[in-house]
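Amino acids appear as letters; backbone shape is given numerically. Here is one record.
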Amino acid sequence: MHALVLLLLAPPTDTVQTHDLGRLPWTRAMTLEGQTVRVRLVVANRPAVLKSGTVLLEAEGPEEESRTVALRVRAPVAVGAGDELTVEGTLRVVWHRPSGEFPGFVEVRVVGRLAS
């Protein structure tokens, strides 16, 4: 009986790791490709809102790379540059090829929702 009580009082062992999106190396992001992740980020600029209601954010990160978040929201979200957010969603690594004078770069993107 005592063992059952102790087991019920034990903290959960399935804690979710929170990654710092701005410091997450793209090589590490590749190992998380397609997985559900939790990331912390600092918003780099004013978000864009699509007709579908999706909010697109650029997050702070390495200068030669891109860190983006696409939030699926049901109600307007007041977010601006410098705000810190935690997001849960699917991580994607997108390669943008060079074209003319446009240099290629890697984008680490999370598509999801604000974490509660």
Remarks:
- DSSP finds two helices and seven strands in the chain.
- Confidence is low (pLDDT under 50) at residues 2-7.
- The first helix runs from residue 2 to 9.
